[in-house]
Structures are given as structure tokens and as C-alpha cells.
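Researcher: We're teaching a course module on how sequence relates to structure. For the next exercise, students receive a sequence and then see the predicted structure as C-alpha cells, so they can try to spot secondary structure elements on their own. Here is the exercise chain.
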Amino acid sequence: MDKLTQADLQQLMETRQADCVTLYAPMVMDDPQNYDQNRIYFKNGLAEVRSRLEGMTDEAVDNYLKPLSRLLTDDVFWSNQSHGLAAFLVDGMVQTYRLPIEFEPMVFVSSRFFIKPLLSYFENCQPFYILAMSQNCVRLFSGNRYGAEKVELENVPTSLQEALAYDDPEKEQQGHTAAARQGRGDNTDVVYHGHDPQDEHMSDLKRFAWQVRNGLGDNLTDEDAPIVLAGTPDTVSYLRESADFNFTDTSITGNVDHLDGKELHKKAWEIVEPLFSAEQQTAVKRYNNLSKTDQVTTDRLKVVQAAYFGAIDTLFIPVDESLWGVFDKQTGEIEVHSLREDSSIDLFDAAAVKTLENGGKVHLGGDDMPRFGAILRYTSDALTG
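Model: And here is the predicted structure for the students to work with:
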């Protein structure tokens, strides 16, 4: 499985260029040796892409698709698949994502990438972090529903010893060691006046936690994702002495050095899963409470217009349904196509992109969610007026 971040999605959404190629394909996972079927799905998709690239000679098409065509002979690539494959190509640059989603096979060639199928990944795979800290080790994991990967830390001490080696204590420690003892070879520990050794240790641990917090931000690709802390109660308490991070209220407490990434992920998911579910439940409750007001609309065209004008707070769209057509940004008029045409875009996909670009939330409709509709930032009368 590949890692798909909010930053990756943002880059895909912002791409505007001729002949953006989007290809989704399901992957066979029942038999790890059945790579040929997966290549066939991908090859069929490439054939459809070829038919949609207009105004190019065959040689030009071959050259344009070469970054994708090369994958057909990459045995390592096909031996490491997940449930679905998403591929994006524009002007020689290709990006692929092997994700735990069973995509329907689909191909798009347009002035922008088609991202709606990816939304199910973010709906079900919201990112979170695990920060596990002890005196001996500091580990950061980036996770989602399906697992967690260790992040190689930068600008963060990985142990108490390393932290203190570069630390500049705020106060001098006053002590004495009898020279006579040293002359006699007496190895009695240094005795400090006015300091409890336990207090010194806690002060060191507090400075260690400060250094970890100070460098943590450099290692987060999604600063809004919740962070589950793991460590002793004192360690966790010191890490919490900052309002700069989205630490979860509940932590994994105790000696965590013996827990590997898989075990930490299992414990952390039990903490964050209710948080992610609560966000969706809150959105549905708010939608239902406003459903009989002008702040909620299920009019398809009005939803698309509101999205383009930045008027949507929360959008619910079906992942398995498209609204084909063209939106005129100058006039705000929408032309709906009964069937997909060469000039068509999926207006539901465009509405999702615009909503996200304008800071709104997008949820996939169905099951316990409204299938389609939007909570507006202001009433529909204000939108049309």
C-alpha cells in the first residue's frame, strides 16, 4: 500500500493542464501470483486513454504514455499491489497509488485530474500519528485504519542521553567530590547540595520532552491529524505542555519500549476511531437539523454552483454516481449532459474539489450518510440573490 496524504490530494486537485490522464483499476488480491490479471486491467485502461488523446500522432501518443507503459514490464511493481490502483499522468510526470480500495475501472483525459474515487480513502483512512517516547527511544509513526509506518525523525533527539548531550541546563548544579576520595580511588557518587536526585531526573525528562516537541513539527506532513501519545504518565504529561499539536485526550500509558509498530497501531486505532466516527456523526446530525431550512439544499445544480462560489460548508456526494456536464465559470450556467461527452466533466467531482479548495468538508453519501446534499455557509436565497 502506498501513502496518500492530504498534500498529495491537494497537488492533484491544483493541477490544471491539457491532457491530464487519470486511470483507476481494480487489483486481484486473492492469488499473489496472479499478476497477469492486474496487468490486463491496467493495459485495458491504457488502451482507452490512447483512444481519448486527441490531436496527437500515434508516435506522440506512445511518447506521452511511455511513463505509464513502462509499468507493464515492472515485475516488482505488480508483485506489490493493494486492492486498487490509481495512476495520474501529465506532461511526462506520473504518480501511482496502490490503495486498499476496490476501484471501479475508469479512465479520464481532461484539463484536470479526476479525484472523487480517492475521497473514499480519506473518508475511511483518516491519518493520525503515534508518538512513543521513553528515556531510551523516541519513535514517530504515521498511521491510518490499515496500519502505521515509522517516520525517520529529523531534528528530534532519540533518547534522553542524546538530548542531554546537547542541552544547556538553565541552572548550575552545585556539588562536591572529596579530592581525597578520588586520591584513594573512592568511586562514591557526587553529592549535590539542595537537589533531590529524583527532582533532577524529572527536570532532565522535562527538558527532553521540550526538545522532542520543539522538533516534532518538522516531521509532520499533516499538522491537523490527531497525535496519540505513548509513554509513562510523566512523559506524556510533559509532552502535553504545548498547545501547538493536536494531541488526543487519551494516551497509551506505560513502558512502551516493548511495543512494536503493529501493537502501537492497534492500541492507537482504538483511541482515534471513535474520534473519526464522531466527526461524521456530527456532520450528519447537523445536516438533519438544518434539512428543513434554506441552509441545506439537495438541488444538484445549486450544489454545483455553490461549490464553485465557495458557499458550501459540508458536502455529501455519491461515489458511484456522476453528473456529466460543463460549468461556465463566467456566467455560472451549467450545461448537463445525459451521457458522457468528450467535453464533459463529472460535476460532482468538480463540486468536491471546489469544496475542499475552499475549506469545506466532503463526505461520501450512503449507508448512514445523506446520499447527496450540502450544508451552505449562507442560505440558498443569498446564493441566488
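Model: If you want an answer key for the exercise: DSSP finds 13 helices and 18 strands in the chain. The longest helix spans residues 261-290.
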